[in-house]
Amino acid sequence: xxxxxxxxxxxFVPVALGVATLTFALIHLVPGDPAVAMLGDVAGPADIVNLxxxxxxxxxxxxxxASFLWDLxxxxxxxxxxxxxxxxxxxxxxxxxxxxxxxxGLLVAIAIxxxxxxxxxxxxxxxxxxxxxxxxxxxxSVPHLCLGPLLMIVFSLELGWLPLTGRGGLxxxxxxxxxxxxxxxxxxxxxxRQSLIxxxxxxxIRTARAKGLSAFAALIRHGLRNxxxxxxxxxxxxxxxxxxxxxxxxxxxxxxxxxxxxIGAINARDYPLVEGCVLTFALAYVAxxxxxxxxxxxxxxxxxxxxxxxxxx
Amino acid sequence: MRSSGAGNPSLIAGGVVVAILAAAAAVGPLWIQADxxxxxxxxxxxxxxxxxWLGCDALGRDLLARALWGARLSLTVSTTVVLLSLMAGGLxxxxxxxxxxxxxxxxxxxxxxxxxxxxxxxALALAAILGPGIFDLVVALTAMGWTGYARLxxxxxxxxxxxxxxxxxxxxGAPPLxxxxxxxxxxxxGPVAVQATFGIGGIIVAESALSFLGVGARxxxxxxxxxxxxxxxxxxxxxxxxxxxxxxxxxxxxxxxxLGDGLAQAMGRDQ
Lengths: 313, 271
Prior knowledge:
Distance between the termini of chain A: 25 Å
Shape of chain B: elongated
Shape of chain A: globular
Oligomer: heterodimer
Helix content of chain B: over 70%
Radius of gyration of chain A: 24 Å
Largest sheet of chain A: none
Structural class of chain B: mainly alpha
Number of strands of chain A: 0
Structural class of chain A: mainly alpha
Helix content of chain A: over 70%
Largest interface: A-B, 48 and 50 residues
Largest sheet of chain B: none
Number of strands of chain B: 0
Order of helices and strands of chain B: HHHHHHHHH
Number of helices of chain B: 9
Strand content of chain B: under 5%
């Protein structure tokens, strides 16, 4: 078990390095001079040269890359141009809000998907199944972008039940969390239904029925546990995506998280802050996937005991 | 028996929605004759009614015209991106699978590395850095999408490589490119078409999101995403500004998802 843990953690380092390198490449190797973009059209040549020097952009690219990695290892993400504050501090201030939103979205997704998938999979073809799967296709198709304003119009403006924007107590969290979690709920519900249907025809279910259990009881008592495995896998795979989904949700609801920080930085052409935010999101995404891997390996012994875990196909 | 018609409601429903959308995008802007960029300050925030069937926005611009031009933008961008992603990703995946061994391993490691980076974030960062312009938007979105096709095509080609008809063609001396294009592409067409259909829906969402965040299509160019962004501040007084683009995005994605589902079902039954 320990060996498996260490192996998976060791695999984190090259992936994190790759992601950091890709972020660096995005900012520094994509055509266009960041200094020119930051200063705008009115900047004179002297201003551009000075800014490039201040940001270290006039050094050889290899030196910039080495310096970038060195600083990163020490938790130094540079200085925000627009806010004149260390980037790391700004991110540390905003990241908890994004985490709160993402965690709430995850909980909403599970709370909706579990009963829905169960009801659909236990009696496929029935009325409940049809309604559940209609919800699922709608949930998958309606993006956060559309659902957010719709929920705002209905629950905040028309009914006045919930606040419109901002962060505060549970009431403020409700609409953003539902917006973020519904898409995932729909995907999970569908997977759960499929999984339950597949499990229904298993031998052990037939044995349980032969022993006198009703179809429903046999499914719930014996089949559910196995049916949950692919659902949990999918949950782990998609949970990371919730993080980036939070960016749009934060903008819709003016939620003071890292997503809003990043969009503000983009508008202000604050390259160091943009780089810091992109890097943090990307590393958090990798960490989430890594945690899923670890949890899955610990739950299912077959995974960690298999020598060659296939990469790709 | 291929399942189309009454046995496959998703295919029909999806097909109808996509057909209407395509027709609206192609013909709508020509037929409507209203200029999506023409401002009319006497009609600011006008509610839906005769003359302006979906109302007007904060600058008095006709919402129906803007929605139709937005449809044209979304469909053009998404189909272009999916085609480019498909070609680039498909070629890379197929080459890796046919080459096999070390090359395959290296290429797929590279794909995995890109996949480790969240796709939408990559598109967002690229779009922000590359700047405004539809071409840059297409590049940013293609960077997000190609890896999925690389993996899909590689997987399919690996399977097909072992089939008798491919072995026969190889025995007859067919070079790898002919092997791929003449013999494998017809077999690949099915799964790729399904993924591409879902892909178009996904790119419509991504493009709308990027435009909403201010890094995609910029105003005054009408895009469903930036229409939603402008509508945000006016939700209290003019909710129709948000409902029109929101409904457009939702219905489009629903249509493509249903169509993809239907195609998958049709092909599944076929096997």
